[in-house]
Each structure stands twice: as structure tokens, then as C-alpha cells.
């Protein structure tokens, strides 16, 4: 058997000791990272639980507004977020010469929303009178629906949609609209003082059948519970990993 000099024995023992210390330090570092990740995942899970409670409350409030009796238009200075999807009524005269078409994709296929200024005693409010297919784009193709005189409109109050659609900006100069941006439409059409919201008209038929109202889709995505469970699951896995690292016996 070969004889190992004492100095070499001491060097080997020192290296083994340093290796053990490095391993122990690495375990503590990874355990700390796992605990930090668990805390982050836990915070995200709690946030999703809070978001779910907020979303359920919003759904209940919107459902109550949709089925309530129609109320007069709110003041133009009021924040539209406080009244979104509220049933409202308004009386006035349509300014058909300044109507705006915004692109739409509905259950009836692609086409356009017809937004027409309604001149009321309180001021001007844009009314989404409903949907028309592409072959009814021009007012002449739906002349019967260009009603004159005093009309009464009932519908849902909606917030403005600034900025255009997904990856498509509004082009006022070309009269090309991808979203119902009330302020931009009012400027482009010279409407003057206009309510900061628009009204989606209900399904009351228009003469000639166009525009077709009552196509508002009220749907709120509510996947917060799934997200919360996912984050809590990741937090549990991180805690389990930290526990395994901390409980792992030291190697000599």
C-alpha cells in the first residue's frame, strides 16, 4: 500500500472541508431563492383572489344596471366609468349628415357600427344605432332608417374606445375608424361639445330594418380562480423545494 505523506493528507482534508462548506452555502442560497419565489407566488395568488372578488362585484353591478329601468343621461362632466352599461334614455334629433361608421365584427358577420350624433337639449351624444353589413354602408342603401324628427333612444351607456383597434389606428383624415373614439370622432365631425361616452341603442327595430341595434355583448373574462390556484401551487412547490434543500443531510 502506498504511503500518503502527512502534508498531502492535510491538503485533502482541507479540500473536502471546503467542498462541504461550499455545498452547504449553495443549499442555503438556493433555499433562500426558493423561499423568495414562494413569497412572490403567494403574493400573486392573493392578488388574483382580490381581483376575482372585484370582478364578481363588477359582474353583479353591471347585471343590475342592464336590467334596471332606463334613466336620463348622466351629466357630461361625470366620469363614464361610474355609469358604464347603465340603461339610459335620451330624446333628440339625429344629425345623419355627420354619422360615422366604425368597423365591426359581430355574430352577423363583418360590417360597420353606425354612430350618429343625437342633438338633445343637454347637448350632443353619439348613439351607436346598430350594425350594418358592408352592402348597407352608404346611407342611400338604408334610406328608410335615416329617420327625421324627434326620436327617443334607449340603450346602454358605453365608455369611449380611444386609440383604434388592435394594431390598427383610427385615421380621421381618411374617415377610417377601427374603434368608437368619441373625442376623436367629435373633433373630426365638428360636433362641438359632446358627451364623453356613447350609447348602444337597444333592439328596437329601425325603419327598413337597418341599422340593427341590440347587439351589445356584455361578457367579462373571469379566470382569476384558475390563476390563483396556479400561483398557490407554484408557491407550494417552491416551499417544498426549500424544505428539501434545508433538510438534506450534510455530506462529509
UniProtKB/TrEMBL annotation:
<dbReference type="Pfam" id="PF02104">
    <property type="entry name" value="SURF1"/>
</dbReference>
<dbReference type="InterPro" id="IPR002994">
    <property type="entry name" value="Surf1/Shy1"/>
</dbReference>
<keyword id="KW-1133">Transmembrane helix</keyword>
<keyword id="KW-1003">Cell membrane</keyword>
<keyword id="KW-0812">Transmembrane</keyword>
<keyword id="KW-0472">Membrane</keyword>
<feature type="transmembrane region" description="Helical">
    <location>
        <begin position="28"/>
        <end position="47"/>
    </location>
</feature>
<dbReference type="InterPro" id="IPR045214">
    <property type="entry name" value="Surf1/Surf4"/>
</dbReference>
<feature type="transmembrane region" description="Helical">
    <location>
        <begin position="225"/>
        <end position="246"/>
    </location>
</feature>
<protein>
    <recommendedName>
        <fullName>SURF1-like protein</fullName>
    </recommendedName>
</protein>
<comment type="similarity">
    <text>Belongs to the SURF1 family.</text>
</comment>
Amino acid at each position: 500500500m502506498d504511503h500518503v505523506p502527512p502534508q498531502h493528507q492535510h491538503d485533502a482534508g482541507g479540500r473536502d472541508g471546503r467542498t462541504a462548506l461550499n455545498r452547504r452555502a449553495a443549499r442555503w442560497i438556493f433555499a433562500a431563492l426558493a423561499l423568495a419565489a414562494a413569497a412572490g407566488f403567494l403574493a400573486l395568488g392573493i392578488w388574483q383572489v382580490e381581483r376575482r372578488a372585484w370582478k364578481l362585484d363588477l359582474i353583479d353591478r353591471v347585471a343590475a344596471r342592464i336590467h334596471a329601468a332606463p334613466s336620463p343621461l348622466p351629466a357630461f362632466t361625470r366620469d363614464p366609468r361610474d355609469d358604464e352599461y347603465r340603461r339610459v334614455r335620451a330624446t333628440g334629433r339625429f344629425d345623419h349628415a355627420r354619422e360615422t361608421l366604425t368597423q365591426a365584427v359581430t355574430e352577423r358577420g363583418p360590417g360597420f357600427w353606425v354612430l350618429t350624433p343625437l342633438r338633445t337639449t343637454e347637448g350632443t351624444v353619439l348613439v351607436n344605432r346598430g350594425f350594418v353589413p358592408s352592402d348597407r354602408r352608404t346611407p342611400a342603401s338604408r334610406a328608410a332608417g335615416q329617420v327625421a324628427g324627434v326620436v327617443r333612444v334607449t340603450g346602454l351607456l358605453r365608455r369611449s374606445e380611444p386609440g383604434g383597434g388592435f394594431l390598427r389606428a383610427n385615421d380621421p383624415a381618411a374617415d377610417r375608424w377601427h374603434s368608437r373614439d368619441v373625442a376623436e370622432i367629435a373633433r373630426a365631425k365638428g360636433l362641438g361639445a359632446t358627451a364623453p361616452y356613447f350609447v348602444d341603442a337597444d333592439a328596437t327595430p329601425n325603419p327598413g330594418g337597418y341599422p340593427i341595434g341590440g347587439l351589445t355583448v356584455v361578457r367579462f373574462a373571469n379566470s382569476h380562480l384558475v390563476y390563483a390556484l396556479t400561483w398557490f401551487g407554484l408557491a407550494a412547490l417552491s416551499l417544498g423545494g426549500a424544505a428539501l434543500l434545508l433538510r438534506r443531510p450534510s455530506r462529509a
